[in-house]
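User: Okay, second chain of the day. Same drill as before: sequence in, structure tokens out.
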Amino acid sequence: MKTNLTRRDALKTLAGGLALASFPRTGFATGVAPAAETTPGGFHHSVCKWCYKDIPLAEMAAAVKGFGLESIELLDPADWPVVRAAGLTCAMANGTTTIPKGFNRLEHHAAYVPSMIGRIKACAEAGLPNVIVFSGNRAGMSDEQGLENCVVGLRQIVGEAEKRGVTVCMELLNSKVNHKDYMCDHTPWGVELVKRVGSERFKLLYDIYHMQIMEGDVIRTIEENHAYIAHYHTGGNPGRHEIDETQELNYPAIMRAIKASGFTGFVAQEFIPLKKPPLDSLRAAVKLCSV
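Assistant: Same drill. Structure tokens below.
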């Protein structure tokens, strides 16, 4: 199953234009979710569009709103008006970094600092709460050097994020199966980065599927590190498919741990459905996660 390339390809063109959508400002702009009664479980439900590449965005947006989703994410600015028209948001906007080339190399900062500042401004204007960034691959670099370099770059953009009320989120990805050599591949490294950057507007995107591969012990990790996490992604392991009984993770228990942490942000489904029709799998996943 060649799932490792699909998302990489989907994210190659993150540095697209910064066309602004005409979104009204809402509570999403501050990263604070709407009142809990709008969503089962206290947190909010989203889905990553790249997993449903064969379904047009407008068609998908109209369908998913009917079963509890409030967001379709990992979208570029040109797509934001489409989900807005369906009454949805984009809970995690695409940034301008790529998975292999991120903030861990100083030579990338000249391009990424201004482009990310521009994307943060666009998110704020559109009322979107979060924007994604990546560490980049090691390529022989030590993890300590990568931390130092990421801090240099990220501190140049978090001031804008603080001013605009947008949270910059670095995603934890596995380097064992899908993203070989990726640096931000363990929670302790990511948590240390958040601590060093020292801003409430820089946190982690904790991907449950990826961290199950790298670390396991998902619930304990969430309990001990939830203060450093602003967003969650799901996915069944092995294979990154449905989060049902065909895989090893106990998602209702994980969702209860997230809920118990006081989290009121978004949990996004990020699995590649094998079953047909695929939106039935998505509906079942949202129901499973509505604890």
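Residues 1-6, 8-40 have pLDDT under 50 and may be disordered.

User: Thanks, on to the next one.
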